[in-house]
Structure formats: C-alpha cells, structure tokens
Design brief:
Distance between the termini: 23 Å
Number of helices: 0
Radius of gyration: 15 Å
Helix content: under 10%
Strand order of the largest sheet: 1-2-3-4
Largest sheet: 4 strands, antiparallel
Oligomer: single chain
Length: 72
Amino acid sequence: MFNKIITAGFIYYGSVGPLNHFMPVESQQHQLFAVLNLNLSLNWEFNCGYGWGFTKSTDNDMFKMILGYRIH
C-alpha cells in the first residue's frame, strides 16, 4: 500500500480444467498481473495491470482494466 488512494499488488488467474480431470499442462491457463488500484472515492475503484501468460494456451502479454462500484 502506497497510501489510502493508491495500492499495488499482484493478481493470479488460472484454469486447470474440471476437478475430476485436469487438462494437460500445455492446455491450462496461468496468468500473473502486476496491478495498481486507485480508490477514487468511497464508492468507486479503478484497477489496471499488465499481465504475463505462462503456458502455450495463454496470451503472452495482456493489459486489464476494471472500473468497480462498491455496494454498501
């Protein structure tokens, strides 16, 4: 955490297939993102990050953005 408005971190996304039958490793998807979160207000948050894929079936370079509204 840099301050109350800007935070940073890592997010992992992955898919290995059904629990009763995992896909082969080359078909699985594993991604890691370095992200920044901007807490714009008590209700709004902006998240963006750059990601890397670690398998053949995952894109190598990705950019993501999320605009979130917090429900109280």
